Automatic annotation (TrEMBL), chains A, B:
The lineage of its organism: Bacteria, Pseudomonadati, Thermodesulfobacteriota, Desulfobacteria, Desulfobacterales. It comes from Desulfosarcina ovata subsp. ovata. InterPro entries: PyrdxlP-dep_de-COase, PyrdxlP-dep_Trfase, PyrdxlP-dep_Trfase_major, PyrdxlP-dep_Trfase_small. This is Glutamate decarboxylase. Its cofactor is pyridoxal 5'-phosphate. The keyword NADP does not apply.
Amino acid sequence: MTEQKRRPQLVADHEALARTFHQPENEQSRNVLTKYMEQILFGLHDFLREHVGITEEIPLKELAAQFSSSTIARTPVKRLADVIAKIIEELAPQAVNVSSPYFIGHMTSAIPFFMVHLSTIVAALNQNPVKLETSKVVSVYERQVLAKVHRLLFNLDETFYETHIQRPESTLGSFVEDGTLANLSALWVARNRLLPATSGSVGAERDGMANALHDRGLRRVTILVSQLGHYSIRKSAGVLGLGYDAVTVIPVDRANRMDLNVLQRTLEEHCRDPETAVMAVIGIAGTTETGAVDPLPAIARICREFGVHFHVDAAWGGPVLLSERYGHLLKGIELADSVTIDGHKQFYLPMSNGMVFFKDPQAMDAVAYHAAYINRPGSVDLGIRSLVGSRAATSLVLGSALDIMGADGYALLIDHGIETARAFAEEINRRSMFELITAPELNILTYRLVPDGLRESKESNETISGESRLRMLNHVNIQIQRLQREAGNSFVSRTTLRRSGQPDTVVLRVVLMNPRTTPKIFNAILDEQESIYLDSIAPSLRLKSLTP
Amino acid sequence: MTEQKRRPQLVADHEALARTFHQPENEQSRNVLTKYMEQILFGLHDFLREHVGITEEIPLKELAAQFSSSTIARTPVKRLADVIAKIIEELAPQAVNVSSPYFIGHMTSAIPFFMVHLSTIVAALNQNPVKLETSKVVSVYERQVLAKVHRLLFNLDETFYETHIQRPESTLGSFVEDGTLANLSALWVARNRLLPATSGSVGAERDGMANALHDRGLRRVTILVSQLGHYSIRKSAGVLGLGYDAVTVIPVDRANRMDLNVLQRTLEEHCRDPETAVMAVIGIAGTTETGAVDPLPAIARICREFGVHFHVDAAWGGPVLLSERYGHLLKGIELADSVTIDGHKQFYLPMSNGMVFFKDPQAMDAVAYHAAYINRPGSVDLGIRSLVGSRAATSLVLGSALDIMGADGYALLIDHGIETARAFAEEINRRSMFELITAPELNILTYRLVPDGLRESKESNETISGESRLRMLNHVNIQIQRLQREAGNSFVSRTTLRRSGQPDTVVLRVVLMNPRTTPKIFNAILDEQESIYLDSIAPSLRLKSLTP
């Protein structure tokens, strides 16, 4: 009631509307709008700083009950000030503090402070790079940013870039929402280049998969990727009309890299079958689950031998090329036909920023579309060769970040991540309660907690069967991850590794990309896991009854 | 040199890096960051206010030459302050002033001031709604926003929303980058529901289009849409492996609405053919080129009769439902199976914000994907049923905007657009030099300038053939649009209407969505077009030689 009196009823009228579209005319209203920005910048961050935890403990069910209104109010119910206050005070504490150095479970992490400013610029300019008429210089700028990353990947000669960087008929790459759509774009191009219009066929894009295959006497096309391939590969095959069973999974070796012998054998087998065509082989530069890098030079050589499109999913690893110390880990990426990179991962950009690149500047001609009102043939509209239409001008964020950070600035982040991961792995090896499952090649590693009674040894092997041992280990590690997440002080993720010849193994997974994550912090996280096990899991395990 | 002295060399070191990730610890650095925000908020807007023009006149070639660097510098080359200054002083003047009330050519326009703040919040929180572990409350919030728009569209009963709004197994819709991906998502679902896994078939998603069709003795599936359908429909058919020839174009009537007789006849024909299956009929609620709305209730009735998925592309028109005065123009949309809406169009959100909705909360089960490390079966992760993976939490922008504007606030914008379009059309009819080609049904209309000597009359018909008359009219209007755009004071777009039984007609196209576009402004734009014609085109036309 008091509040009702203090605040006039909100109304939607032309005067109120005009205020939201017009420039604030006086100093006072400018100050108010700046004040709001200050609250957003520091109100949210202050919260995150005080709130070292990852998230509050309110159960999801309870949270969900608070968001059960399905009607849009007719009259305004909040001012901008109310919205900001509510987000800072009520929403943010229930969001996930991805910028905490204790949040080391996913590929979402802290971003440099200035990224928020750069995102604000994108919104304030509100350009739409789908066409020149709604973006002009921003389209030109975007081409430059794409060329810079293209060069980082493929390192072609100066003449190549001079020729193609601003040539309307050339396309070095495309911004998309994320790695999923980047992979989809690359495979869309690969599909259309495998099944193009010829004298004997209208081609897949125009005539569909069924006819394009039939015209060539084919029964199926396949995509080969290691078993650690991202699920977006299967999704892309599903979307593109190949069916996700088209994805042929190649096992990995002990280092989680694609088994080249099996790759070679599978390619021979598929190519022997006159009804099968191989559409693409995908190498991974930083698998989602273990961070491993496939043997790219060898895969490239095999692809060339078989004349198959070579795509590299470097959504995670791509920016490692910026490091003089570790860039060599991605050797062979320059031999790819197409590459996926996620800007919101190791370029440390805010969500969302995906990119796909093609070595051949004409590759994306295979997916060109025109319309009568925009994207007319011969125009320089970027929307002609692109999966998506309208989109935000996120090239401004990446381009500016490259200027502000320099390759060296990014290299500091990359090097820190890789070196912290190595230190973490050493610590795992040092602690008797843990077992390292996959050593870090980049900055991701997996491990698990192995209780005393379940440690592999002559004695335990006699008393617990391998299968029940694994079942118990999986159970223990699922519990640890869940209890740690719910406690809210730190966060690691978990996944189930399915490696050929080995049973499904539940592992704890850490992604080390936050420059503020120090050995002191990861030790605290490991200590917490040990305590969780000892205090909350061990008592109910009754291992004793199993190990007499 | 002086500058070199004044400013220390930029270096990338750990200290500099720490500053970008840490909280600013003191008042002074906070003030600097706030100051930057102020510059972004008002520097860009001040530019736009002073710069009434749409864009500077620098030719594209010259602009392109300025953006031809393809190398990423090793050391930092700019501070945030430099980046902001450069964007305000050099980039923005070459961008397109889409917020000018004189920019009435595309579906990109001014946005309320507070939208920039809301976008900043999204970047600052940097949540990733692909999974609960990187978004928590934001996923729950997003479900609420989706339910609100779902209810605006389908208006199902309270019990329906109580049941599904937060039920993890239900999906009312999905945020995607734009209308293209929304249409693609809807058609992906429709494809998989037409060709599901059954006892006789593995289904399209898993087994591919070729096998799924073969299993059913089908040769093709078709999508029916009017000839004014957005080009993303053809693109979606291409991507999904149907081939873009699967899109069967239904002609429009004189009001640019789908011809129902032809629709009925085509459906009968396709259904008679045992080798053809109709996958979807698409009704358009606001065609891109003319703003026309298809007869949705009748199309819905026909779809039900034939048992075909009914998709409505309301990328443009959807938010008209918020207007009590004009919401009825979209009658029948509630009968759709799926609907596309673009938030960055008539919800006035910044780029980019697309959405797709399904009446059946289980529809998106047809496109579910899981992974071992996230999106596990049974989890509430939103990424399970979604084309895209990682993405920005744009639901925060739309949800907050609905609170701030209320339906009534949006209705003011919608009503203004429709009524301004009507006034514009009246003005066209009043001016003898113009001809209205498509009257506005919503807030889009097309027209052309018809010079004296080319006016259709008994005399002119005798002297100029219809064909050469049309060719000259097309030429004149292409010139007008180009010269007006290049002059940089105002912007209308042009398109080529291809209507059955009529020759290709070049038209000027206006989209009236900026609340600051008044009759005075559109009259000035028409005056300018007349002047451009008289001063720059007529002298070289030599119409006299054609009209003796």
